[in-house]
Amino acid sequence: MSDKDTGTGSTRNQPEQPEPAGAVVPPAAAVAQVDPRLVMRQQGFSGYFSEFKRRVKGGELGSLPVIFGLIVIWIVFQSLNDRFLSAQNLSNLSIQIASTGLIAVGIVWVLLLGEIDLSIGSVSGVSSAVLAVLNIKHGWGDVEAIIAAVVVGVLIGLLHGFFFAKIGVPAFVVTLAGLIGWQGLQLYILGDQGTINLRYNSTIHKLTSYYFEYVAVGYAIAGVLVAIYAVTRYLEHERRAKAGLPVIPIQDLALRTAILAIIAFAVAYVLNQWYGTPLALVIFLAFVVVGDIILRRTRYGRQIYAVGGGIEAARRAGINVTFVRISVFMICSGMAALGGVFAASRIVSAGQSTGTGDVLTNAIAAAVIGGTSLFGGRGSTYSALLGMLVIGSISSGMDLQSVDSSVKLMITGAVLLAAVVLDSVSRRSQKASGRA
């Protein structure tokens, strides 16, 4: 009986015909998945514009808002005072943001867990007090005193992490107690004198007073930073390609590297017009770059993002959540201690006011303004750099205009609120588009 007779002759109901003899049929698993973003990029400028709109609608803004805001801030203040973008002012700005910037780098790690550390200002103060007492009153060498101050900070972080991760006390309460307690310890260590002056031209003082005067050094540092970025991104490209995952085209990587190179060498050129590249800026950038490499390129870093994304899911994935939490608080307090060392270096003394004032708020604000989410799981150490540039630029520009400090605080608070609102809106957009 024919197919026609049995009523199965309809083309719609027939099974797919086999491929001709000799034809190679790729298995379904071998079919490459094409990232729609790559297709858009092949369309030229219109493709990039479409990709930009897709990212905005999906809440994937990244660092674009803060970079745009920084450009606007620089344009406004430069139009008000032509000294704002001068080599002298930018060099001073790079040193001014170093101490609080180092503290902000540490707070980024805690924010990635979705937690907060309110004690970083007090930790920086007590560490600076330890530094001064050991160096001046007990005759310790500069390097030994610096190491001891940082170790004190790390041990404080270990204590915070223990009560938080092991005992179960909320991080807010633990670090709030630390905010009060470590400030009291700072006053006790300093004693009745209240302020201990450090030695000029010592290693401690040179942390914020030394400049690489040779022009070639600044350009070499810029070249190293660009090379690190290019190599790490290329290795990531190769790793994803071997795993069969979508990759960014080499042309895009080359373009991004070229843009970074232009910025890095421009900064080196400007700084060389004054005294040269400040050592404080180099150390700050080193911690930013190394921190980003650890967070994004190591298993430990991925575990931090995983814990920040969801504790229970991280536990089920076999991650030692307790270890991750304790270690992150140790890193945060260690960076706060290092920031305290730089703060003491800049004013060549350690006193009762070190680590107080707006240190805590500026460090947290810098991390959030730079793009690190308060809700955990999203951000990088580059947030500390971008956020400190924003806060430092606002402060420097207003100082040049002789604006009252009260106005600076109000504007910084408004910028912080805008960053948090943007973060919240971004998260809602991601959930709506199924990306959160």
List its traits.
single chain; 436 residues; mainly alpha; two-stranded antiparallel ribbon; 71% helix; disordered N terminus; transmembrane helix
- Determine the number of helices (DSSP H or I, runs of at least 4 residues): 18
- Helical content, roughly? over 70%
Which strand order does the major sheet show?
1-4
| Record field, number of beta strands | 4
Q: Estimate the strand proportion.
A: under 5%
**What's the SSE pattern?**
HHHHHHHHEHEHHEHHHHEHHH
Let me know the average pLDDT: 85
Specify Rg, calculated over alpha carbons.
26 Å
Report how far the terminal alpha carbons are from each other: 58 Å
Q: How would you characterize the largest beta sheet?
A: 2 strands, antiparallel
Q: pLDDT under 50 segments (min length 5)?
A: 1-35
Describe this structure in words.
This protein is mostly helical and 436 residues long. It has a domain of 213 residues. Helix content is 71%, strand content 2%. It is built from 18 helices and four strands. The strands form two sheets. It has a two-stranded antiparallel ribbon. Strands 2-3 form a two-stranded antiparallel sheet. Part of the binding-protein-dependent transport system for D-xylose. Probably responsible for the translocation of the substrate across the membrane. InterPro entries: ABC_transp_permease. It is a multi-pass membrane protein.
